[in-house]
Amino acid sequence: MGDQKRARDEEFQSFVIGCWPGLLRTAFLLSGEQHAAEDLVQSTLEKVYVAWRRVSSADAPEAYVRRVLINTHARRHRRRLKEFLSPKDDSGLAHERPDPGDQMARADSRSALLKALAQLPPRQRQAVVLRYWEDLTETQTAQAMGCSVGAVKSNAAKGIAKLRAIPGLDEMVTTGGRK
Question: Which residues form the RNA polymerase sigma factor 70 region 4 type domain (predicted)?
């Protein structure tokens, strides 16, 4: 019994090491704060560890964990939705420690883009983050969000439209952040 538990723990540890950067990036883009993102990933992984047998036997364990992350985030902020949608202090956005290999980390428009992303309603933010940062298909995004493909298309389109409507942001994106 001890050897099985040890093997399962090692398998879980390997999984966490492999998916941590992606989960942290997604959590950061959803929450807008580095520390909140780390807490969100930690809480998600605690839930996943308890159900690791079921998760590890899933067809796509990382997609399963991403869904748990999104659900955990939604549950945390459901009660404080109004406060969450209009943050008074966005200084946490400047404290993210980007992955050195992350192309987005090197963009000049990163700060402006993250502030704009924080202004989106949660479902639109989720759709934009999963479709365009995580590069998931519409079907994968719908599965992760627990909604239809049509809802993903609608939320992503509305989110992108709101991002494009922000003065100055559209020019940075169309010029690739170059002036």
Answer: 112-163
